[in-house]
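> tool_call: predict_assembly(chains=two)
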Amino acid sequence: MEQPIRLLLAKIGLDTHTIGITVLAKELRDRGIEVIFSGLKQTPEQVVRAALQEDVDVIGVSCLSGGHMTHLKVLAEQMRALGIDDRILIVGGVVPEEDVEPLKTIGVDRVFTMGANMDDIAAYLRSAVAAA
Amino acid sequence: MRKVILDEQWQAAIKRRDIATLARTITAIERSPEFLLALSRYVFEDSPTVSIGITGVPGAGKSTLLNQLIRAYRAQGKSVAVLAVDPSSIQTGGAVLGDRLRMQDHALDDNVFVRSLSTKGHLGGVSETTFISAQLLKYAGFDRVFIETVGIGQSELDIVSVADISTIVFIPGMGDYVQGIKSGIMEVGDVFAINKSDHEGVRALEKVIRLEAHDRENKTGVSLEVCLTNAVSGEGVEALIAAQDAALARSAGQDSLRRQRQLQAFSRLLLDIELREHWLKPFVDGEAGRRFFAQLAEGESNPADIISVFTASVESRS
């Protein structure tokens, strides 16, 4: 069996909307991905430290609180500080269209918003990790 | 994959418990059988560090109990590493590893290292690479190395040959006294922790477990610790630590025996991996194997024929 991609999934900030991230964890599991679920109300620093210890290929952050710009900026800085900015960073949740480009400027590789297709997410992860 | 080279620089980084190096090394162990073999030459030096297995049924509170154990050990100034194993899917190889989330309180603490591992289809409660990864963490010098198994049933007991001592976590409501006299988990383990001690049925369970512990003590002369814990409130965690320390002190006399057992089990594992990677896989995925399975599907051969086909292919290789 080929080695599975390791993905850390976390919810950041004051946000307890768990349905999306739970469905995503399970669906990606069913697509052969090793999902490390680090839970809710995480600070960017906690997420990055967990990613370092878990040596993940991808960090996936779910944010439905509207705080994505603030949190992701800190998170991307922390990734650079710990030397893991070579990992793929993806964001999911309620992200307005006009925030997508600014997030990419910060260092987010891809944003998946409402209605994103699970197969597309898995396919993206495979190609992004293969190219990394 | 981020490459790991086993040089002096690597050794120094591991010895100062550099998180990034530890993390990358564990990944390399999981992803490359050759690396696993090479690493085995480094990490078996004597170390005062001990490893403790935590096992029990799914949902018994193993991770939550570990969160409390980490807190207590950190209060004593001890460094702690955890390998948390969860099952991987047989169908897809994917997994949801959810033990870490109970221990995220300690994410910012440099003296706590938590790593989630999937079983990679291995049965027995841990993954094939768990032992060597624990050995790496001992070599790095963490004061305590914990190995949390998957939620086990009655007989996934690999942890006994992987960890120095094992704590089995029980919870009330899992059946009557007959469960206590079956073979399996009641026969192994050094410490019995009865978690969710505020739940109904805890007294009845304690009675069964104390009876079994007493019986084993009579037969083996080795005493067993039984304690009640509440992983949510932290009640009983100090007693659990004392019980584990007592078990460690008691087993200290048997260090060499235990070591022999661990090393034997690990050697056999290396042999298994060698046979699988260099003999079985090339056969099954190769010309002879594919031809055999095609014939089998057509009803032109019998499953038993695989032995002679395999033997012939091995002979033709040498």
